[in-house]
Task: structure prediction
Amino acid sequence: MVFSSKTNTRKEEMGERVSAITSRDNRWLKRFRACLGGDDDRDGLVGVEGVRLVEAALGSGLPVEALLMSESGERHLGRLAGSMASEMQILRTTDRLFAGIADTQTPQGVAALVRPKAATVEDVLRGVALVAVLVGVQDPGNVGTILRAAEAFGATGAATCSGGDVGTANPFGTKALRASAGSALRLPIVRGMSCTILLAQLRVSGLKLYAGVRDSDARLDRNGGDVPPLVRPWEADWKSPVALLIGNEGAGLEEDIVRSCDARVSIPQGYSGKTSGVESLNAAMAGSVLLYEAMRQRGGVA
Result:
């Protein structure tokens, strides 16, 4: 294995923390392979791959248990070294072995094992709370995009829960992490609670519950009973503590969940009175639009 003189100097400075991996059966390589492949690690670790995600992990304040670099990935060491904790385990391997554990088609030769924080409801209620609640959002790309928008537009946290029998994709899975561009590592995310209990706790904490619905969805109006008012994004009060519920890509939110909310928020589609041919926006697009409106009302933009 060949290293540049600059990298060799850094290696000497890091001393015993640097270990070389030459076998695909190495226990560290197996852990990286499992975590980057989407398996839940028994120790609660998740795998991140690529320079930007590893840099986000190192800067997140979360514990990073190990950093893995291939021969070609060593060129990124200078960029990352300043963020490495003194006790971090640093591992080196060949490009061939790294490609065998990578989740991407063109690996950058850098990966890390990071331990996300298990957030509580209290963690997402900082200040004037704005919480994105993902209910049965199955596509990891949508999950990651919503989390990225949530952080960008000032959300205080997020939560993922099931909608009936449909679960929400793991926000710390490799595809969701890439789509979030690291936001999943920085934003407090409540996981594992039932939707009913979560919403009850949010309501007790003083949050209004807004259900994101399709403009064409009239199920509640047809079925009768008490129906939350239907408002446009700019008509909703986003300045108060709010939880925005975003449902499944196909089925949306369950009827009983929508009925439990304070309002239904729908994004109109069309221009100058003309009806759009688009049936609905996808979950990530709709969530991003609504979160942007929340930021706008809260003074984030002019």
Observations:
- The chain has two domains: 5-114, 121-297.
